Amino acid sequence: MRVIIADDERLIRLALRSMIEEMSLNIQIVAEAKNGSELVKLVDEYHPELVFVDIRMPEMNGLEAMDQGSQLSPHTQWIVLTGFSEFEYVREAMRLRAVDYLLKPIGPEELEVSVSKVAAELEAKAKQLDNLFETAVNSLLHGTRSMEEINSRYPLQDFRLSITLFGIDSHMPELDKTRLRYQWIHGLKETYARQVPFSILEHAISFVTFPNGDIAQIIGWHKDAEERTQGYVSEMNDMLNQQMKDYERSTCIVSGFQSEYAMELVNLEKKLLQLQELLPLRRILPSRRLWMEQDVRLMMDKPHYRDIIERMDNLCRLAYMQDFFQYTNELKQLEPMMNTLAHQDPNALEYLRESLNVSLGCRLEGNQSMDQWMKSLESVQESRLAEQSLAELSQGDLIQRVQNYVNMNYMNDIGIGQIASDMDVTPNYLSSLFHKKMGKTFTKFLTHIRMVKAKELLLTNPALKVQEVAERVGYYSTRHFTKLFLDHFDCYPSELHQKSATKQL
Fold this sequence. Notes:
Blueprint: E1 2-6, H1 10-21, E2 28-33, H2 36-46, E3 50-54, H3 62-72, E4 77-82, H4 87-95, E5 100-103, H5 108-142, H6 147-153, E6 159-169, H7 174-195, E7 203-209, E8 215-222, H8 226-246, E9 253-258, H9 268-278, E10 290-292, H10 293-296, H11 303-320, H12 324-344, H13 346-360, H14 370-409, H15 416-422, H16 427-438, H17 442-460, H18 466-472, H19 478-489, H20 493-504
Parallel strand pairs: 1-2, 1-3, 3-4, 4-5, 9-10
Antiparallel strand pairs: 6-8, 6-9, 7-8
């Protein structure tokens, strides 16, 4: 929390600073002011979360400065200080929405209680905004609400977004990879909470885990805070780069790709798909760092890069699914591409070697021949195949648990990422396994269950409106629900609704 102290007496400013710095709270005193005019300028410059303001100051008194400063920084909280206890001052301070009114001399205990109250309110406000933002983002990505409904329910039409997509590669067991993802998200949230003033800059943050295991960090800020936000972009990216380096270990690599700055919510889905197309490039780029979309997009236009990363991603997917036959075929297709890469871009081949070692658990050495690499990659998959029979015993039960979960929660805003987390496996693994065992994707299965339940409601409850039926099966957009129903049953829900009502007569 960033704080400004405003008092015309230097000793009082020093005393306040000393007491605040001794508190066990995350507070940064960014400036001091000795008069009201100076305070207004500092508030406009720093947009602090909290200001201590003395009433009696030269040039402009504290209440006048508070009035002007509140217009420049609406989310700043104010604690009024004075040696005068007249009721008029209290009434005016409360009218200006001061959070507290402290009489001088101020004791450390009284001060800490007041500051702790402000910190708690700011934290609650930031969490509320985060929750609204996360609900809107997930509703959009899961298709449970239309863009029109999101804009009507949540005040996000004036927000601008930045997306960072993370790929976490590891050959560790599913439970360990799930923990890695949780630790990564939790670590980022803690870092931001300590170092970035999200509440005052009107920021909100959401993390989304996709079925293939990719993690999207979506940060939003109000357009009115855009100029102030620009000063934090490079600082936040430095934090991300440092976090990826700190996360370094022999069994895990984290890489990130970031979109251009300040997009609108309506472009979110399209941009996420574009970043997901680029993310496989991490396998032939220096790892454990953040890449800007515009810096790597040109690489996708080069066929030898695009083809090899697509093959490499498919190889890793087949390895995770223990499909030995297809894995071997894919490896044969990759060998000539890797030979070509060795001649055209030796550095990219070295980055690819590191990626394979971490993703598949092999031990490719830089001084080995390509034939030796191929034998090592085959050997790794043969070892996985030997363990396959044990894994098959538990897969059937896992898929049954997913079906049971959907049958119990289809009316909620659920996704494969959430279910995978509850079952201690990665979304990528669960999504691929579900498709393999059920013959359809999880999304199609969830849609099918919802449509069947909706049909049942329409036939048995003719008094229900179509909108009510849609909401009961997890859709808040009647238009989207109607389209899915028509695709599924080749008739509109309203037609089925009318037939049911006619039978009741």
